[in-house]
Structures are given as structure tokens and as C-alpha cells.
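Sorry to interrupt, but I need a hand with the structure work. Leave the record below and I will have a look:
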Amino acid sequence: MIFTKLILQADSGSLASMLPFLAMIAVLYFFMLRPQMRKQKKEKSFQSELKKGSKVVTSSGIHGKVVDIHTNDNTVTIETGAGKIKFERSAISMELSKKYLPEVKK
């Protein structure tokens, strides 16, 4: 009987001591991991829906316009101020269209 009480008290004590650790894991998931996964999913869908004529920015910061999309080797040709450059589709990070650019007041 006494042994059973000790086991039950030990279990409730260990659960209470694990509660802050579990709370830290939940905070880490909801504030760091989940938003990162959502961002990666959004970026991947953008890269798969790329079209000719789109103004884009690469992950290295090069701005240009999509001229050609090569489906066989998963690359994209971008026209920049320096000429045409071939990039991996995964190197395209975002689109520069009117909905993403801020309004310029005249």
C-alpha cells in the first residue's frame, strides 16, 4: 500500500517536472518550426508555378525577367541588365510584380 502511494507520487512529480520542458517544445514548434515549414511550402509552390515574363529575384539578389523555362533539367533562363543567365528553378526566391512592389508616390 505504501509502495503504491510512493509510485503514484513519483509519477505525478515527474510529470510536473516535465511540464516546462514540454511547454518549451510546443513554443519552439509553433513560433519557429511551423512558420518555417509554411514559408518553404509557399516558396516551393511559387517556383513550380513560374511563368514566362514574370519579374523575379533570385536567392543571390539578381533581378530579372523570366525568358525561358526548361522543364527537362529544371532550370530557368532570366534576362538581366548584363544579359541572359541560366538558373536552377530552386534559386528563384520571389516575384517582383505590382502586388509586391510598394507604390511610388509622384
Q: What stands out?
A: The chain has two domains: 1-49, 51-95. The two ends are 84 Å apart (CA to CA). The mean pLDDT is 81. Strands lie at 55-58, 63-70, 75-80, 83-88, 92-95.
